[in-house]
Design brief:
single chain; about 300 residues; mainly alpha; 11 helices
Amino acid sequence: MDFWPEFLASCWGKEFVAGGFGGIAGLISGYPLDSIRVRQQNSKSGSAFNVFRHVVATEGPLSLYRGMAAPLASVTFQNAMVFQIYVSLSRTFDRNTPASDPPSYKGVALGGTAAGAIQSLIISPVELVKIQLQLQSKKHYHNNQTTNLKGPIDVTRRIFRHEGWIGIYRGLTVTVLRDAHSHGLYFWVYEYTREFLHPGCRKNGQESFQTMLIAGGLAGAVSWISCYPLDVVKTRLQAQSESKSAKYRGIVDCFRRSVREEGHGVLWRGVGTAVGRAFLVNGAIFTAYETALRFLCSNNGNDR
């Protein structure tokens, strides 16, 4: 019974729990837009509004939350881990900065890059299952047979049964390429923007909610723009049913064939939806994270 008070009193505990709260807030606030983005990326046409109207009319509004159980089950741990790894490594890469001062922007960028690469090991299988569920209609067709949807566990079992570990980690390489540099940019933009909007807040942690929302939103938008073509390729690779019957043989093949068949615009299809969602979601993530961190720190009688 003494574990949780001791855990929350530690640096690891506070950052970990605050990061988890941030992840949950971000997922719930942006999941419907994420479903629309995935459908846009995997189709040959259709604006966000048309996709939304078609999905709601044919499958009902709750279909926009289909597949949320998979990321929700892991998002707390994944986001908590990312924030904790980022905080730790930003200091590791910046040992010359005193502990009483915030890490340099170089340390922030390097720590974020490493955190993004590491978290890909968790998020890649989760996003594979999520995408498979998001792109299914009421029925799923496999080997010319119609089966009812049974959720993330059923999808995971089916992938393991037909493809094993290789199948469940389909898209890992492109996920690492997407998340490593985008997370470095993500944390750098957040730290730079909040300091610009509220000078001194990186050290005293007293920025306003407005600063958190704007800085978090901009960080999310900029990082998504930087990696969006890779995300389109990742979606298309992970949307395939089986590697044996896959349309694309890999990252380069998917990139080349998509551009050849649909033009360069395909790499940016759905970017408006993604950026809008990113601003909303990451504003919520950082606001929830910073708020939870303040609460945990104040309850332990310590400054941040």
